[in-house]
């Protein structure tokens, strides 16, 4: 196998740079990086031969022809995200995939979403789409066909479609698998505090279904923002298992008014999943689902994927939040001064929350 000198010079320049893993799914990053390092070692040889190629391929557990595909991808693009399989998502829970539909159906869906609003109820939008498709003699799409298009519309919806300065606190399941120290593997679970009209994340907690994030810490971090202290429109959508009752008692005891404790399934404009449109940076988020719907076996079986440790998951989510917030600036250019009496709210809330633990 021979390589042109010009290509060799370009590759040396690429190899001298740290590998950028942007666009590579978190569970694929370790293996993608390992493959790139082996490919770079092969390319750096002065006269790479087929025998050397076979040796490097064996170290990755793949065939020679597969290895050449990796070499060509790296030489042509020099990006981790361009390596075969690096961007393929691991579907850890049931999620709706964007499949091609008849252009006439696509047009009907777009028209209905525009009329009903991106944050209309899914069932209402689906019924309207089905009715119009039947009138036009077209086969109506399923919910699986409509949902990803609605998610995309919600991501693109203007801020005027959302509720002013309201802050939403709720949970969302992610497509990032976390492997706990005791060997239990689950999808990472987030509790997010979002400024609805800007979709900006104000605070968040990382955990999993069996080890929920600390919601109290998220609420305390949220009330630090002066605009939140002044506006006082916080809508919390969490089940009892997330210390909901303790938080309600603590909020009342601390004098934190303006908090609405939603029950049942929240309306789309009150749902952190809907407001985010199913994505947080490069991480896919979904509504909470029961364990029977999780699809963790592919992660265990996949040669190119591996679950992440708790620390790795926290780093992935921190990067996803930073990426998301970079394109969602805060509502106010200048901070709004805290109202008198709100300066010590976080201390009062913390004391009240701790007091509920001693009483229980």
Could you explain the architecture of this structure?
Strands 1, 2, 3, 4, 5, 6 and 7 form a seven-stranded mixed beta sheet that branches. The protein is globular. It has three domains: 5-82; 103-156; 163-359. Helices cover 44% and strands 13% of the residues. It starts with a helix and ends with a helix. The longest helix has 17 residues, at 310-326. The protein has helices spanning 5-15, 29-43, 50-60, 64-77, 103-116, 122-135, 143-156, 215-222, 226-231, 244-254, 272-276, 297-301, 310-326, 345-359, and strands at 167-179, 185-195, 200-207, 234-237, 259-262, 279-280, 283-286. A hairpin with a 5-residue loop joins strand 1 (167-179) and strand 2 (185-195). The chain has 360 residues and is of the alpha/beta class. Mean pLDDT is 80; it is low at 333-337. The chain contains 14 helices and seven strands.
Shape: globular
The percent range for helix content is 40-55%
| Global Rg | 24 Å
What is the tally of beta strands?
7
Strand content: 5-15%
When the domains are counted, the total is 3
Distance between the termini: 72 Å
Describe this protein with a few key phrases:
seven-stranded mixed sheet, 7 strands, 13% strand, 360 residues, globular, 14 helices, 3 domains, alpha/beta, single chain
């Amino acid at each position: 196998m021979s390589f042109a000198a010009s290509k060799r010079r370009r590759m040396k320049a690429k190899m001298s740079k740290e590998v950028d893993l942007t666009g590579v799914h978190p569970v694929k990053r370790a293996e993608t990086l390992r493959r790139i390092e082996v490919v770079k070692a092969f390319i750096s040889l002065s006269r790479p031969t087929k025998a050397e190629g076979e040796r490097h391929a064996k170290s990755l557990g793949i065939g020679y022809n597969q290895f050449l595909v990796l070499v060509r991808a790296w030489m042509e693009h020099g990006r981790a995200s361009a390596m075969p399989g690096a961007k393929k998502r691991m579907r850890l829970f049931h999620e709706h995939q964007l499949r091609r539909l008849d252009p006439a159906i696509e047009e009907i869906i777009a028209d209905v979403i525009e009329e009903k609003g991106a944050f209309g109820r899914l069932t209402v939008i689906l019924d309207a789409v089905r009715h119009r498709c039947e009138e036009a003699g077209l086969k109506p799409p399923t919910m699986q066909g409509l949902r990803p298009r609605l998610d995309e519309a919600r991501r693109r919806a203007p801020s005027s479609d959302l509720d002013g300065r309201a802050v939403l606190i709720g949970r969302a399941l992610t497509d990032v698998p976390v492997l706990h120290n005791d060997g239990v593997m689950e999808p990472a679970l987030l509790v997010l505090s979002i400024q609805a009209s800007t979709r900006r994340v104000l605070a968040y907690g990382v955990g999993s279904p069996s080890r929920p994030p600390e919601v109290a810490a998220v609420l305390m971090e949220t009330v630090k923002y002066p605009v939140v202290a002044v506006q006082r429109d916080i809508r919390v959508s969490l089940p009892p298992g997330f210390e909901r009752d303790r938080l309600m008692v603590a909020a009342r005891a601390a004098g934190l008014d303006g908090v609405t404790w939603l029950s049942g399934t929240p309306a789309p404009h009150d749902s952190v999943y809907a407001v985010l449109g199913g994505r947080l940076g490069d991480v896919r988020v979904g509504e909470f689902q029961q364990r029977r719907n999780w699809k963790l076996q592919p992660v265990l079986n996949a040669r190119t994927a591996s679950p992440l440790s708790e620390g790795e998951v926290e780093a992935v989510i921190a990067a996803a939040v930073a990426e998301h917030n970079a394109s969602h600036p805060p509502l106010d250019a200048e901070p709004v001064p805290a109202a008198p009496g709100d300066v010590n709210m976080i201390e009062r809330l913390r004391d009240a929350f701790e007091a509920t633990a001693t009483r229980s």
